[in-house]
Fold:
Amino acid sequence: MDDAHLQSAARALARSRRLVVFTGAGASKESGIATFREPETGLWAKYDPMELATPEAYERDPEFVWSWYEHRFGAAAAAEPNPGHVAIAELELLLPRVAVVTQNIDGLHQRAGSSDVVELHGSMNRFKCVPGTHAGFALSDFAEQTEKPPRCPECGAHLRPDVVWFGEALPADAIDRAETLSKDCDAMLVVGTSGVVYPAALMPRFAHEAGATVVDVNPERDALTSSATIFLKGPGGEVLPLLVAAVREHLGD
Ligand code: BJW
Structure:
């Protein structure tokens, strides 16, 4: 990674009054959680998203989809925040306003200490019934059920993870807040997203149009890189601690 780029990014962040950190699956890769679209290792290289991440797929084969998610719950429960998550959480201690807008459902930003996290695609730690009438269940609320998928304690319909599948609307409060933050920020740090899933991928565009400095951290160039002001090539777990150390230096901390 180019040190001049690192220093320019650190300067922009150190000056920022309203920073948004926008993250995707790559931010959790060094915690051992698979991304979606990377060739060979991404989840969609092995599985068809239309068979797993749509409401129609769940209606067709709830046992199969539930078992896939159970496997992922296990991986996420065993995962720990990586140095990238920790560096992002540290930014809150240095800058006046830092909000994290994430597409991830693993809760690792919160576990690393970030206090203002907008979850655009829901959370694998919450469950709701398929009709959507009853929500906010935790795994412990149905741990004793042997049936898979488990049933809603309130209405008896199948439970499902409270995540956003293709063709489903994003939670209104989350997308509204993400849009407001992105249009109002003066710097955006984008970490580990291919930027191909909408409407989430609009957030860096909103920030760019608002005149914010957009810093993209990713080992590969992708759909967002060309519209970023500064590209920092490398994995988040390596680049972000260096970036935050450089922000500290710029602030004279
Ligand atoms: C590293 C790294 C390291 C590696 N460090 N980096 C406009 C145009 C075209 C299509 C659409 C459109 N608007 C809507 C659509 C349709 C669709 C869509 O976007 N499709 C496109 C894919 C073509 N969008 C939707 O359906 C959305 N809903 C919607 O629009 O509803 C409309 C509606 C309105 C009103 C009523 C009803 C409907 C919903 C999208 C839901 C996405 N869901 C998923 C699954 C979530 C649950 C789960 O996890 O099981 O969300 S799909 C998956 O993709 C997941 C992710 O959050 C999302 C984004 O992926 P992400 O995070 O970018 O990961 P990758 O793998 O793509 O990229 C990883 C990156 O990390 C890479 O760049 C690597 O290089 C990098 N990396 N190692 C840093 N160490």
Summary: The longest strand covers residues 122-129. The radius of gyration is 19 Å. Residues 24-27, 29-30, 35-38, 42, 53, 103, 105, 121, 163-169, 191-194, 196-199, 217-220, 222, 235-236 surround BJW (CB under 6 Å). Strands lie at 19-23, 98-102, 117-119, 122-129, 135-137, 159-163, 187-191, 213-218, 230-233.
